[in-house]
Amino acid sequence: MIPRVRIAHLPTPIEPLPRLGAVLGGAKLWVKRDDLTGLAGGGNKTRKLEYVLAEAQANGARTLITVGAVQSNHCRQTAALAARFGLGCILVLSGEKEEPPSGNLLLDRLFGAELIYCRAEERNQVLQQVFEEAWSAGKRPFLIPLGASTPTGAVGYLTAFEEFLRQGLEVDWIVAASSSAGTQAGLVLGAQKTGWKGKVLGISIDHPATELQQRVADLANESAERVGLRVRLQPSEIMVNDQYLGKGYGIPSPQEIEAIRWFARYEGLLLDPVYTGRAAAALIDLIRTGFFKPDERILFWHTGGTPGLFAERYRSLFKE
Ligand SMILES: *Cc1c(COP(=O)(O)O)cnc(C)c1O
Fold it and tell me: Which in 143, 145, 148, 221 has the greatest CB count within 10 A?
């Protein structure tokens, strides 16, 4: 296996969702609590960053530079990790500057990250420029791409899948939010490697299915190469549902707000307004419309993001 920094609280628990299952007509549901990975509010990026940070260290990095939306969970976890390891951190954030900061952005500030704002269209260009400036200034920067979804980062979810298998719960489906593809790539790679009989369904947050299937397959294959596995996946083997994109990234639909309320009121669980709210709304709709067979067992893989609930822009959605 490849180098890894140990920072996440693992294994994350698997818990049943009996009350939610009952209101959904007796659906057999569990949740994998990757909102509890332990790093500054938790989430799926922690697992990927364990491998990416080891790679950065091997490269002599002294500053982590990454990119995301203003309320990025990935940026928040990267900022916390940099603080923990005494590294500098520069975040290139697309979207409107928030004053005063709230949610994830408040935490980015608290961890001492340097914040640079830009428009979404110019994000990659600004990122490159920031990297070059940091390099010239002798900061030994290491660039972590969007969502830490690199071949190295995805290994975090290959090992997460193996962790899930060791926990011994048999399910027919894993359902998870999917966006920059690293999480799903790692999970499908794990499923393939171990000959798992179930299916991994990615709920697309912001991409058409064909695009995301291609990205997941490519990343899984590159990641397989990285760890020396002889596995080849085709895009057609990747299950993605893109029926829940709604009005776009970070714009929760009424169904998503309802899903967040249901998880809260029936299970005392927090979801987030960008990723897990959308994936949970999809899960609920797919159960109601008979996509799953009645006796099939389903694991909802919670990918984190709960600090987003406290962002100024989303708070008002939950007034009543
Ligand atoms: C980043 C993120 C995802 C998506 O994971 P990818 O690996 O980018 O596909 C899902 N949920 C939350 C809460 C996230 O922050």
Answer: 148
**Is residue 120 domain-shared with residue 182, that is, in the same domain?**
no
State which residues form the domain around 218. 14-44+150-318
3-state secondary structure of 61: coil
CA-177 nearest atom, ligand 1: 10
11 C-alpha to center of ligand 1: Å?
Answer: 19
pLDDT bin (cut points 50, 70, 90) of residue 98 is: confident
Check if the beta carbon of residue 212 is closer than 8 Å to that of residue 181: yes
Same domain, 21 and 140: no
- Give the tens place of pLDDT for each residue, 26-82: 999 999 999 999 999 999 999 999 999 999 999 999 999 999 999 999 999 999 999
Report the SS3 class of residue 249.
coil
Query: Which residue type occupies 56?
Result: A
- Contact between 148 and 181 under an 8 Å Cβ cutoff? The reply is no
Reference 56, options 93, 7, 104; nearest CA is 7
Residue 4 resides in a domain: no
The amino acid occupying position 278 is R
**What is the CA 227 to chain-centroid distance, rounded?**
21
Last residue of a domain, one of 109, 124, 148: 148
Q: Does some domain include residue 1?
A: no
Q: Residues 121, 220: one domain? A: no
Distance 245 CA to ligand 1 centre (A): 14
CATH number reported for the structural domain that contains residue 283 in this entry: 3.40.50.1100
Specify whether 72 is catalytic. Answer: yes
Residue nearest to atom 8 of ligand 1 (CA): 180
| Inside any domain, residue 9 | no
Domains in the chain: how many in total?
2
Asked whether residue 5 is assigned to any structural domain, the reply reads no
pLDDT in tens, 189-216: 999 999 999 999 999 999 999 999 999 9
Report which ligand 1 atom has the smallest distance to the Cα of 178. Answer: 9
How many whole angstroms from its chain centre is CA 67? 14
In the 8-state DSSP scheme, what is residue 316?
Answer: G
